[in-house]
Amino acid sequence: MLTPRSRSPSPAPAYSTSRILHIYNDSKLSDRHATITDADKSHPLYTLDQNSAGLFSKKPHMRISSSQASTIIGAVTFHSMSRRVDLEIHGHEVAFEPAGTLTTSYEYASLAFGDSLKWKRDGWGSNLVLVNSKKEWIARFDAASFALKKVGKLEIGNGGIAGVALDEIVVTGLAMVELENRKRTHSSAGAAAAGASAGAGGGCSC
């Protein structure tokens, strides 16, 4: 179980429309620990503890905790031989699965919203959006591409969403962000290997 930072809890601000959460790595050199704050950037809501990627890394690979309740509210496990991702949210197992064979989108049966929700890319780049079965957006993730410590911001469309529903958005959103990170890492490694192979075989044999 994660131990939240010792900070006096302050009342969360009221919201009339959307709500912004900010995601920060706790170290410039490591993405293993992160903090998710409220809109004021100083009110911690969640902490993320992440194991390094790898075939023999400890499972679950991600654990998300409530900063105030000091309890783990979600866990994420990836599989090396499958695109399926196993989630656990407040003790309930949730299947986070590709929305199709060739798509990069992931969908799941939401316990909090009673609907099928889908995380997908929002335009080009690393931005993501969560939509319901009516294609109405529920949340958006905007990546902080050039920041040292900031991962990005998570915008909740309805600022009144809280409790288990907010926990679910955060857990599934962080899982989707990590999926995108792993895809980029895999693509970069593949490109580097291809380049090295081409360089090794590029000499003239005449």
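Second entry:
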Amino acid sequence: MPPSFISNNAAVSSQSGPAPRMEVKLRSQDERPVVCPTDDETIAPKRAGSQKTIDKQSLGYILRTGLAGGLAGCAAKTLVGPLDRVKILFQASNPHFAKYTGTWFGVVTAMRDINAQDGLRGLFRGHSATLLRIFPYAAIKFLAYEQIRSVIIPSPAQETSLRRLLSGSLAGITSVFFTYPLEVIRVRLAFETNRTPRSSLLDICKQIYHEKRPIPTSSSLPAPAITLTTTPTHGYANFYRGFSPTLAGMLPYAGMSFLTHDTATDWLRHPSLTPYTTICPPKSTSQRNQDPSHQPPKPPLTYWAELLAGGFAGLVSQTASYPLEVIRRRMQVGGAVGDGRRLGIGETAGRIWRERGFGGFWVGLGIGYVKVVPMVAVSFFVYERGKFLLGV
């Protein structure tokens, strides 16, 4: 009896034993068992496997960063459109608005007069050309920065301030080279007032294209100089008036803008500030220390922290590049004022010095701060949020 009982139990266990194991195996395929969150050996491989590597050279990444950058530029320029119009009138020494320069009240008065004469559309005159230019400009600038940065700074260990500055400067030069003619058209549209004949976009293009240097008289210049300066220079080259100071100004402007923004965001992501400045602060750094080669994505900043970093970047970059920006504006409108003669950088700077002295290179800097600080802040904010939403 006992042996039989034992054999029967063994038979039952041999028949019923595998069944529960099969059931558990099937259940593990459909329903994943709960993993203890403290089991580091189990969680770490799972997270490493689910971490998606971003290919910054892929077409999808380039298009998405370009889209985010273009939208960021349009949002920022729309915000400061009226201030941009007044600043251009001040910088280019428009004769009808020269009396308003030098005071904050003059900025308000100029905006009020423009609104009274032309309405709200007058404050946004040239804004269509601005958006037409700023979308490709900002798109190329931000995507070029991402691409150039990935080459110059291939790893976090090689990230330095000089490399950041160089990446931003090269990105700015790349974007301005492809979009500068649109900038010249925008400035000429914004330079016109109600006291000058209205011109359409096509009229402005024709006017710029056909502008020529005036022919000097033989009594004012010697013969070799006459031969050199009377050569008619017109055509597509006129759309690149002021391009040289633009390139020179872009080096400090774009370079300092990206450098300052990236440095400020690093400060705001300091461990002591992370709980207050980031949306998703990291829970622990123990897992990151296990794999030094793994660099997790930086947590996005809160809206006020991102705006603060962008505003600080705008303040620094505007100060570093403003004198060259004034020279560039004067060169861009050179065909619309005076004798229409195209001036070089040295001649333009000399004329500004004779007219207003050292302060002439800083005309409109106050309104420049009021315009650039919120513009750059909104630009970086929209760009970073756009990248976050687009998965880049």
